[in-house]
Amino acid sequence: MNRPAIVNPAATTPPAVTNNRSRRPLILIFLLSLAPVVAAVLVYFNPEWRPTDSVNYGTLVQPQRPMPAADALQLTTLDGKPFDLNSMKGKWVLATADVAECPESCARKLFVLRNSHASQGKNVERLSRIWFITDDAEVPEKVLEAYKGAVMVRVKPEQLQRFLTTPSGAATAAEGLAQPMWIIDPLGNLIMQYDVDADPIGVRKDISKLIFNSRIG
Hints:
- The chain is an alpha+beta fold.
- Helix content is 37%, strand content 19%.
- It has helices spanning 9-12, 15-45, 104-118, 141-146, 157-161, 173-177, 200-213; strands at residues 59-66, 75-77, 82-83, 92-98, 127-133, 151-154, 181-184, 189-194.
- It has an eight-stranded mixed sheet with strand order 1-8-7-4-5-6-2-3.
- Helix 3 (104-118) packs parallel to helix 7.
């Protein structure tokens, strides 16, 4: 009695079908890898498609300004000891400048920077704050207490103005310095400026984005 022949199922699959199935994963991988490039090109040529969070709230400093040497920017602590700004390299530095009396506008800047610093969660140690005091008057005790943790140094306004950006039209260097706030990157470059009445939320978001996207500091 003749037994029926055993047919190999694989041999019955047409070669074309097998080849098509084997190519599909490769095609899908290629399309997935191409998608971000296509999306980037579309967003580049259509700015209105860009998310609002990609826009900096502050003003970028162009070109960036490197920290001056200690002899070019002579700083002293409140107890009269020399201080080198370059010693703060390695961290993001939130900076402001004003007279020792610290009027309401000064207190607001210190408050914005203090809260922006404190709100960075696990990244809080990556930041420092500095207050450049542009005269020799005594700092009120309530200000010292409220903004404890900030580096407070005295400086000659004319020297500081060569490093920090200031609005045009100010009568004196000290007046110009009293208006903005700044961010200095961990390499010691001045990179961002904010107006005295800047929205605290906008400042905080900028700082968060800078730290999140940076591998330095």
